[in-house]
Every structure is written in structure tokens, then in C-alpha cells.
Specification:
This protein is of the alpha/beta class. 31% of the residues lie in helices and 24% in strands. The protein contains eight helices and 13 strands. The strands form three sheets. Strands 1, 4, 5, 6, 8, 9, 10, 11 and 12 form a nine-stranded mixed β-sheet that branches. A two-stranded antiparallel ribbon has the order 2-3. It has a two-stranded antiparallel ribbon with strand order 7-13. Strand 9 and strand 10 form a beta hairpin. The longest helix has 16 residues. It is globular and about 50 Å long.
Length: 255
Amino acid sequence: MRAIILAAGRGLRLQQADDRQMPKCLLQFGGMSLLERHLRMLKNAGIDEVVLALGYRHERVEAELDRLNWQPRPEIVLNPQFELGSVLTVHTVADAMTRGGDVLLMDADVLYDERITSALVAGAGPVNRVLIDRDFEAGEEPVKLCISGGVPIELRKKLEPELRYDTIGESVGFFRFDQAAARRLAELVAQYVASDRANLPHEEAVRDLLRERSQIFDVADVTGAPWIEIDFPIDVVRAAHEVLPQLEPLSAPKQ
């Protein structure tokens, strides 16, 4: 199993001071960067093959890897046009998406509990999986995941009024794809780029994959496991004061 961490964006909505701007994966909580937390939890889940999709100030992320002396060192793929949408970032890691085996596609700007990693990787592959948190704050910002009859049918911030579903929650921003689904997603992403839609979020291509029903997805309910996506300054405050204290202690990486 291979993990691809999307960490190319500039994070303009975070409104960092000019002299303190950094990739969001370098934000620290409890004395540990989000990047280190990702790597620790993946290693504890038995995943050593990690691909980092970088762009904005990528040298700072590479310096963090040097500081950690993380082994095996993650593969780095650069998106020089990182100011466009994350569709283009996923396109830059097409090789990692399509070289075989199950693939985890993960946003880098999430502080989350190790139970979420466990839910994502549980079970022998091949598996396609989405994660849902039914306890979410309504509004335009969360990416909603809608389920009908156990099947994910919608993945979007704004839902059509006539949409009918059994369950609604927020997508955690982590996905698992088997070999066939990963290759199909790479094809869809390439179509976005070829049709001048590289400025869109990659969730749009994942949505297309879900809705075309060419692959079977299961849904893992992680309601109750604390997590937060960090987009705005208030998210940093909430991460530090609300989410971090709820996290289970992070065990030392397995050797």
C-alpha cells in the first residue's frame, strides 16, 4: 500500500504573516508538525512507501524531512504550478497513482486521530474506501459525503436540493483506491487537465469516479474520532485547543 500526501498548496486562506509563511503541513501541534504526525501514523499502520506532492516552499518541507531523518525517505514530486487547483497536483503524481497496489490519497492539512488511519487501512486489499464523519457543522465549507443504500452517491460542498440520501456527513479528505480505481482516477484527472479544468479541487474527479459507478466503494464511519482540516486561522486555534487534547497518545513509530 502506498500513501500519497497532497501538500503543494499555498494555503492563502490561513492568512499567515509574510515572515512566517510556510506549507500547512509544517504547522505544529503539541510540538510535532502535521507532516511528522502523518508519517508516524502511516508507519504504525505498516506503510513505508510515502509520496509527498509538494509545491509552495517545498524546500522547507524537505528541510523538515532532513530534521526528522525519516527513513525510508518519502518520494518527492513537485508541482511547479501549485497555485492552480489540487487536480493538477494529483496529475503530477500520476505515476505513483498507477504503479500498482492500493493507494491512499490524503490531504496534508489535517490534524487527526490515529483511529482514522486505522479505519482507512483496515482489511487486506484490494479495497476502495471513503471516510465519513456524521457529526459535522453544516455550511458551505465542509465537503459533504452522501450515502444511499450503503453506496456513496455525492461528494461536494454544495448539494442539489432534490438529492435524496440515507446518510450525510463530512468527508475527512482521505481516500483509498485499489489498483483499478487509482488508474481510473488518474485518467479522470488527466481529462480535467486536458480540458482546462486543472484549477479545480481534486474532489471533483473523485466525485466523478464515485458517480460513474465503475468501481465499488465501501464507507468507513469515523464519527467520534477527532479531526480537523486546517484552512482558516480559527481552525489553527480549534486544532490546538479542541482537537489536540482529544487525540489518543501517538505511539512511537514501529521499527
